[in-house]
Amino acid sequence: MINQITESTAYLQGKGFDQPEIGIILGTGLGQLVNEIEIIAEASYNHIPNFPTATVEFHKGKLIYGNLEGKKVVVMQGRFHVYEGYTLQDVTFPVRIMEKLGIKTLLVSNASGAINLNYKKGELMLIDDHINLQGGSPLAFKGVSELGERFADMSAPYDAEINAKFESIAKAHNITLHKGVYTSVVGPQLETRAEYRMLKIIGSDAVGMSTVPEIIVANHLNLKVAAVSVLTDECDPENLKPVDISEIIAMAEKAEPNMITLFKELIKTL
Q1: Closest to 169 (Cα-Cα) out of 120, 226, 208
Q2: How much is the pLDDT for 86?
Q3: pTM of this prediction?
Q4: Could you report the per-residue pLDDT of 111-165, keeping only the tens digit for each?
Q5: How many structural domains comprise the chain?
Q6: For residue 45, which of 19, 36, 61, 146 is within the disulfide window of CB 3.0 to 4.6 Å?
Q7: DSSP string of the chain?
Q8: CATH code, domain with 52
Q9: Which residues constitute the domain of residue 52?
């Protein structure tokens, strides 16, 4: 993997990706942030050596480098998921590349379902902690200790200072921003009523199919990390109806302006 990381990083540096400070993973609900960036260079995933390729139709597949609110950023427009058939090492490979390029902070967005029924669809949730139900670890491979501490500490995976800034920005802009526990499952099937009940019992406020692997690797690399979820549906096991994926995408898009405000205002302060 070290050779692959070196090769991919060298390719991007040759394309003009020069010492970004902040990495951003654009999940469902933050795609339009790209329009706010003064783009200096970009590379399609399928052109970057050793990179996976996004297979979900509503996830684009580009790495973008440029200026945002006076900071150099590298942005993943489209992410990878275990449910696409990738390994956890594949899913998190771009985080390792962004760190090698120079980032010190990683900001992540995603779409999730609200397990906490006090939270409503269209609102945002700041991730304060997580539960990994993906059945594995992106650090469980031979040679991982050459890339960082094998037994990565996860007592505080999300940066308290950045989270406090997010909450302050939300308050100043009158944006509803809950704070809670995000649980990551494999997917791609959605949960049964019994699974939603279980998720509530173990302390989940929201559930999704991404983010946790990237957070684990970012902590392995000693990056500062923060993540925000768009709550796209309400997961009430007593009143469960079939989910329309197009409605989930529409709800994410509706919440997007608030998400963009949070990220832009935060980046000004970093």
Answers
A1: 226
A2: 94
A3: 0.95
A4: 999 999 999 999 999 999 999 999 999 999 999 999 998 999 999 999 999 999 9
A5: 1
A6: 61
A7: -HHHHHHHHHHHHHTT----SEEEEE-TT-GGGGGGSEEEEEEEGGGSTT-----STTS--EEEEEEETTEEEEEEES---GGGT--HHHHHHHHHHHHHHT-SEEEEEEEEEE-STTS-TT-EEEEEEEEEESSS-TT-STTGGGTS-SS---SS-S-HHHHHHHHHHHHHTT--EEEEEEEEE--SSPPPHHHHHHHHHTT-SEEESSSHHHHHHHHHTT-EEEEEEEEEEE--GGG-----HHHHHHHHHHHHHHHHHHHHHHHHH-
A8: 3.40.50.1580
A9: 2-269
Cα–Cα separations (whole angstroms), residue 177 to 34, 201, 245? 22, 23, 23
Length of the chain: 270
Contact at 8 Å (CB) between 19 and 243? no
Does residue 76 come out as left (phi exceeding 0), alpha (psi in the -120 to 50 range) or beta? beta
Neighbours of 260 (CB within 10 A): 18
Residue entry with tokens 């990706």: 17
State yes or no: pLDDT of 59 exceeds 60: no
28 confidence band (pLDDT: 50, 70, 90): confident
pLDDT tens profile 94-109: 999 999 999 999 999 9
Using alpha carbons, select from 267, 247, 263, 265 the residue that is nearest to residue 122.
247
pLDDT tens readout for residues 209-255: 999 999 999 999 999 999 999 999 999 999 998 888 888 888 888 89
